[in-house]
Amino acid sequence: MNLPIIYHPDYVAPLPEGHRFPMSKFQRLYELLLTDSVAQTEQFHTPVRPPQELIELVHTSDYVQAYFGGTLDASSQRRIGLPWSPALVNRTCVAVGGTILTAKLALERGLACNTAGGTHHAFPSYGSGFCIFNDLAIASRVLQKLGLVQKILIVDLDVHQGDGTAFIFQDDDSVFTFSMHCEVNFPGTKQKSDLDVPLAVGMEDDIYLQTLANYLSDLLSEVKPDLVLYDAGVDPHIGDRLGKLALTDTGIFRREMQVLSTCVAAGYPVGCVIGGGYAEDMKSLVFCHSLLHRAASQVYQHYRL
């Protein structure tokens, strides 16, 4: 049995001409995984759009209704940073469905990967930083509501703090939020995660990986989660225009192997999302995102999941 991967066909349609947010990377990632034989077509699972009440386990009804209807005010739209359209509404919801499915498959198989997700800047009543609905938070609440899990650990290694996620779970002991991010970067106002590890600008591979090693195993032992949700943002990469850290391709791959092998070897299932990535070179960006799936495939086979 092979690593389950979630594919988002609704992400094929482009954003308006001239918009720089790389929505096409999702389709290109899918194609690259097939071209490089990282995955076969039978490994891919297509998510469905979840019902509105599941999104409202995290987000306020007023916000959800306003976004669905395209009636958010101009300042709220600017804070999100993406032009509203019915197609984007659908893609946003399907992406949430993808992370829910990823989490369920991770519980069944021990490890599963999304080809989208990681919208950790979305707060209950507003979106921010290209994030509209918080898929990590919604997936957590859905699995808890279904009685599939009680305790969740969110490992967020996107270069930006997972501020929306931290805020949503700030008074909730059932979800432990761990964010390791560049200290001098968006968001300007940080929230309080259960564990924040701010990193110096320009940090390179070895010290980054050692810093991660200083926390991850101990966290697993302390939290003992039923599920780990891993936000594998690649914006810590040296080539990222929004990152300010200096990880190489090799460093990103080593990070993915470190996170996944540490969790799986200790018996904790992991659901992965790709998180942020904003390199100008689309080919390099997509390859960098694919490192998560390459590492996951190796770990999946090694541990015979």
From TrEMBL:
Keywords, ordered alphabetically: Hydrolase
Q: Determine the domain of life of the protein's source.
A: Bacteria
Could you tell me the Gene Ontology terms of the biological process aspect for this record? epigenetic regulation of gene expression
GO MF term list: histone deacetylase activity; hydrolase activity
**Which parts of the sequence belong to the Histone deacetylase domain?**
19-281
- The membrane spanning regions, by residue number, are none
Q: What single Pfam family name could you report for this chain, choosing any that match?
A: Hist_deacetyl
The UniProt similarity line reads:
Belongs to the histone deacetylase family.
Q: What is this protein called?
A: Histone deacetylase
The taxonomy runs: Bacteria, Bacillati, Cyanobacteriota, Cyanophyceae, Nostocales
